[in-house]
TrEMBL record:
<dbReference type="Pfam" id="PF00078">
    <property type="entry name" value="RVT_1"/>
</dbReference>
<protein>
    <recommendedName>
        <fullName>Reverse transcriptase domain-containing protein</fullName>
    </recommendedName>
</protein>
<feature type="domain" description="Reverse transcriptase">
    <location>
        <begin position="75"/>
        <end position="212"/>
    </location>
</feature>
<dbReference type="GO" id="GO:0071897">
    <property type="term" value="P:DNA biosynthetic process"/>
</dbReference>
<dbReference type="InterPro" id="IPR000477">
    <property type="entry name" value="RT_dom"/>
</dbReference>
<dbReference type="InterPro" id="IPR043502">
    <property type="entry name" value="DNA/RNA_pol_sf"/>
</dbReference>
Length: 212
């Protein structure tokens, strides 16, 4: 397992906006940044230990859910609200390190299809449209028709199957330590929200909560 250095950890911590709302622990990113500037070696030892033992602390797996109403939607319908998850700042640092290392491996080993445009650096909708236009023009020159089929997967992120994600990482020959820490990160996660004076909590086993 490659050891985390101060440069990598510093990037993960400083990538968070200091103004973001805190999670269940009440610690916002600005406080984490301040503490890291004062006791960097303590943070370094902590996150290296978490990777070494493939362990994500249980308290980091709980998120507070806040519901924002969608403009112009009926207030009595559940789908009229957008749930935003407030995660703990330290959890997001670990998430950033895992994500960065996974992306680095997948890109270096060409494990991502060349036509995958979303969630990749220096790629976006413009590149996708350029490829489509180029394909159509090429077919037109050859006097051939072009047919395009478009799918819209409703709730794709809400329904993301974690086991399938882990299986795909294994198929891509991702380093076992990354798969193990990802498995720990996804295991026994929970969310909760306040209903009057009562906290309602339930476990989740799929999906990518907005705000993470």
């Amino acid at each position: 397992m490659p050891v985390i250095g101060h440069a990598e950890l510093g990037r993960a911590i400083n990538s968070q906006k200091g103004s973001r709302a805190p999670g269940p622990d009440g610690i916002n990113p600005a406080i984490v940044k301040l503490l890291y500037s004062r006791i960097p070696d303590l943070f370094l030892g902590l996150f290296n230990s978490l990777l070494r033992f493939s362990y994500c602390p249980g308290v980091w797996k709980f998120a507070i859910v806040i519901f924002f109403g969608k403009r112009g939607k009926p207030v009595e319908l559940a789908q009229s609200y957008r749930p935003i998850c407030l995660l703990q700042s330290l959890s997001k640092v670990l998430e950033k390190i895992i994500n960065n290392r996974l992306i680095l491996y997948l890109e270096r080993n060409s494990a991502i299809h060349n036509r995958q445009y979303g969630f990749r650096e220096r790629r976006g909708t413009t590149h996708c449209l350029n490829d489509v236009i180029s394909c159509v023009k090429t077919r037109n020159i050859r006097y051939k028709h072009t047919v395009m089929v478009v799918f819209d997967f409703a709730g794709a992120f809400d329904c993301a199957n974690w086991q399938i994600i882990l299986d795909k990482l294994a198929e891509s020959a991702v380093d076992p330590y990354l798969i193990n820490i990802a498995c720990s990160y996804l295991n026994n996660r929970g969310v909760g929200f306040r209903d009057g004076d009562t906290w309602v909590r339930f476990n989740i086993d799929r999906g990518c909560p907005q705000g993470s």
